[in-house]
């Protein structure tokens, strides 16, 4: 899977042609991804992209592409924002980044080898060009003049240009720039505690490590790493000429049906745990819901093709207009871009809604896209989500009031088993003095976000 970072380099004034700190942030975020998802065996990244390789036998989310690509992009985005201050302590993150992702299904280890060779060749070619280009620009040439100088130049000519004009030997530039970064889990000695005499007690643990190599698809590099060939297979020979078109044949892509209402629905991943760890108020935390709403508003501002959104609890549905050609209706890009932007905004705005509560770990959301051919079917979908909001909120309100009154969770579940709407309302009124229909609409009905001319509104109804 490939995660590609949308360019916000100019606004944040990254160093050209390479910003080492920005690359280190990308690497740190990818390391967190490997720690979060055990089925990811290997990662390779450079510039603004990262490829994550799952083990062949992975059943992660039962191999549903939309779940996999949205979760990885979402978590990567969350970590990127959460770690920003660690890497750029003097530089404000001006806006939430977003990432697009897609799935490449490698049918054999030979296809995986060809894919990795292709990405590293792209790293070599792009970095060499960018190094020449920005050195020319820094020397006084305009962007168009620099492009003209480099037009149709070959690898050797670029090397000569750098050496003759700027005294730069390309091969001595940092490996991080020229070769990209490999990341995989390796058994290492790690101190877990100290004994009574103060001596370190070490254990072998699988830990993500970074390696740089001139040829990550070569048999010498690959077969020297037992953790790689045991999980992904052996490379039997070095690869020759790379055919990108061959690799593209294995890319999983599904386009949304034209002229249909497309709905991207995102859901919090393991949000029961997230809400417990962050001590959200039960059954509803108004500040948490307002944070979700604020993120939805940001999504509508970022993606003009989205005209309406409906949200409840830890989910949000975003409706793209029928005529939308966002990302040429490629579902993987639409899902990952919306999900990752929502997630990075959630992390970025956390302090505004919870100024006295630390974000203890980055959240993640998964996404999917469904097309609805008519307006009436779209309305049926939205009605279904709102009915679900009502049913869940009414049950949760009863459940948590019972728990707070002293019952165990199991007792509360048994008590509510088989009860209907009227019975739940009577329970709330009789035992707790709560009139369900008088509870805040944001809890009972969810929230709608929509455009009206140039303005965006949030309503509960």
From TrEMBL:
Signal peptide: none
Swiss-Prot/TrEMBL cofactor(s): Mg(2+)
Family named by the database record: Belongs to the tRNA(His) guanylyltransferase family.
Name of the molecule in the record: tRNA(His) guanylyltransferase
Entry keyword set: GTP-binding, Magnesium, Metal-binding, Nucleotide-binding, Nucleotidyltransferase, Transferase, tRNA processing
Naturally occurring in which organism (per UniProt): Camelina sativa (False flax)
Keyword Amino-acid biosynthesis attributed: no
Domain Thg1 C-terminal stretches: 111-197, 377-452
Domain of life: Eukaryota
Domain tRNAHis guanylyltransferase catalytic: 5-106, 247-373
One Pfam short name: Thg1C
């Amino acid at each position: 899977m490939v995660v590609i970072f949308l360019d916000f380099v100019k606004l944040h004034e990254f160093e050209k042609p390479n910003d080492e700190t920005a690359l280190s942030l990308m690497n740190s975020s990818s390391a967190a991804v490997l720690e979060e998802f055990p089925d990811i065996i290997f990662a390779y990244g450079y510039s603004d992209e990262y490829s994550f390789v799952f083990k062949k036998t992975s059943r992660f989310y039962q191999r549903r592409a939309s779940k996999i690509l949205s979760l990885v992009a979402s978590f990567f985005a969350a970590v990127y924002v959460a770690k920003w201050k660690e890497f750029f302590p003097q530089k404000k993150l001006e806006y939430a980044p977003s990432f697009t992702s897609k799935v490449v299904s490698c049918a054999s280890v030979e296809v995986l080898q060809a894919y990795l060779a292709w990405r590293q060749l792209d790293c070599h070619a792009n970095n060499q060009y960018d190094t020449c280009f920005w050195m020319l620009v820094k020397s006084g040439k305009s962007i168009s003049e620099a492009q003209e100088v480099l037009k149709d130049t070959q690898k050797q000519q670029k090397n000569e240009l750098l050496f003759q004009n700027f005294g730069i030997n390309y091969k001595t530039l940092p490996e991080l720039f020229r070769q990209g970064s490999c990341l995989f889990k390796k058994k290492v000695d790690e101190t877990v505690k100290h004994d009574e005499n103060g001596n370190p007690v070490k254990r072998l643990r699988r830990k993500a490590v970074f390696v740089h190599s001139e040829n990550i698809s070569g048999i010498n590099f690959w077969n020297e790493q037992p953790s790689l060939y045991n999980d992904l297979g052996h490379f039997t020979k070095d690869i020759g000429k790379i055919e990108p078109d061959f690799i593209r044949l294995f890319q999983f892509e599904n386009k949304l049906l034209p002229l249909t209402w497309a709905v991207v629905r995102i859901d919090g991943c393991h949000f029961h745990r997230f809400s417990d760890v962050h001590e959200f108020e039960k059954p509803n935390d108004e500040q948490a819901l307002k944070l979700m709403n604020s993120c939805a508003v940001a999504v509508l501002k970022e993606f003009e093709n989205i005209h309406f959104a409906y949200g409840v609890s830890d989910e949000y549905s975003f409706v793209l207009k029928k005529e939308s050609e966002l990302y040429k209706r490629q579902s993987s890009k639409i899902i990952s871009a919306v999900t990752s932007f929502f997630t990075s905004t959630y992390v970025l705005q956390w302090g505004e809604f919870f100024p006295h509560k630390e974000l203890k770990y980055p959240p993640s959301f998964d996404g999917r896209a469904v097309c609805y051919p008519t307006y009436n079917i779209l309305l049926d979908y939205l009605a279904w989500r709102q009915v679900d909001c009502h049913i869940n909120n009414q049950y949760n309100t009863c459940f948590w009031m019972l728990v707070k009154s002293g019952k165990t969770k199991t007792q509360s579940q048994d008590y509510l088993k088989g009860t209907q709407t009227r019975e739940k309302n009577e329970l709330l009124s009789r035992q707790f003095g709560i009139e369900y229909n008088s509870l805040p609409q944001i809890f009972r009905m969810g929230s709608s976000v929509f455009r009206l001319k140039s303005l965006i509104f949030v309503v509960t109804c």
